[in-house]
Amino acid sequence: MKRLRFWIFLMLLPTFALIFFINLYPLVRGGVISFQRLTVFTLNRPRFIGFENYRTLITDPNFWNIILNTVVWIFFSVLFQLVFGFILALLLVKPFKGRGLYMGVVFYPWALSGFAIGLLWSWILNGQFGILNDILIKLHLIKQPISFLSDPRFAMFSVIMINVWYGIPFFAIMLLAALQSVPKELYEAAQIDGATMWHRLVRITIPCIKPAITSTVLLRIIWVMNFPDIIYGTTRGGPAGATNILSVQMINIVYYQNNFGKASALGIIITGVLLAFSVAYLIVAEKGAFEL
Amino acid sequence: MKYRVLSILRVLGLIVYLLFAVFPLVWIILTSIKPINEVYSFPIKYLPSRISFDAYRYLFSFARFQVYFKNSFLVATVSALFSTSFSLMSGYVLSRFQFKLKHFLLLTLFFVQMLPTYLLMIPQFTMFSKLKLTNTLLSIVIIYTGFGAAFGAIMARAFFKSLPKEIEEAAWIDGCSRFEALLKVVLPVFLPNVGAIFSFCFVNSWNEVFTAVLFIHSDHKMTVPVALYSFVSKAGIQWNVMAAGIVVALLPTVLVFAIAQRYIIQGLTQGALKG
Asked: Most CB within 10 Å of its CB: which of A83, B69, B167, B258?
């Protein structure tokens, strides 16, 4: 018995020692740094300054704009990913010849680097040589090329579109798995009762996969909030802050201002929001959709 | 009749999405093999008049992408190897045994999985600079291994749970030790799942950009995403070269995904949903 317990400890040690040093301890350290004046040039001379970093962040006139951007970014990204991912899952739920191959092909964006995807799309959306403008002009939908990423009116819309393209496969995968677990008998019974397709969708399919939808959406909110990669590959928060979200702002403070203290304070704010959503997710998840 | 219309709509929907999904990758590959004057031609030329590998030649000689590619490959492989091994060990224990701290450890795993890399890069940077390890590939290998081990453990645990305990117990009765049973009976069945965990870790390490940009300064230590990052601010990088760089960054993950996607998807849905 004692040997077994030692063995269990030994098997767990590498993973959890690493998690402690790479994730948990840095999280606490980040909390400490957020109360310090610390830049890349004064790494060995931190100075405690109380809530100064938080104060500069929150009193920044752009801060609420960034919050608003973050909400818009999360809401529309997740909404459209959910809608299109659900439609794709519905199209795929009935087996057909070549379905496996089809899924293998269309789900590939899921594994790609978000940063490289951002760069890729910034070429497609290029105001001068971008193919999207070319297509839209040929279809007579627009007269003048649009500067998708450098016009503040279109920038947020554009990065959300890229994010939707990137995120549809994830939703489709998760919802397809849920759809396939809906008992067939329910549909058969509904058919006998003469239910229309719309009724079957609203009365059977959606209620049955609701736990999967809720947990996938919550997981995705957390993930999209923490996903600066696409924006960093396209606009880096510009033009004029039009696509600046919390995570992008934090990286900008690190890279361009080299202000580790201020960036850490923002990191703690992000972690707070993250924690709230994580708790919500775990509560929902433990209730039904999956077991811990 | 109604059924016909529906199935036509279904096929149409699937075709439209296929084009939407594949088109960006096709376009960037086409751009990377265009001669430079056709990249910036107006009106836009959709297909190159001849295939030119100038961009790749530039990338792998002048822009030293062979070095960055090697670094990325090394970092992603080594960290994925370690995190896969670690996560198999902890995933097995977490799926097969009951003990006091188990619930707490599982919660920790789920929580840690939600912390993105960029959020922790500052304290990690101060820690590693105390150890004089910034600007080394070792530093990012260690960090990626930590992130990989966390979500790998969740995947591994889900896989092990789906594997009946009886298979192992039968082997014990036949006189195998616990370790032998793992090696001879469980591992062969489990191999595709090991591949899935490995590819998942590999892809994530391969794609990570923000920590790497902060940690790595020397040109000969850069990974592919760091090199691409430096491309953006460098004047005079033409779009066909950029496109080639993007293709080089994307292709390995596309390949890994093509090989392992079935098992990755299985692991992902099992890890998150009751399966």
From this structure: B69
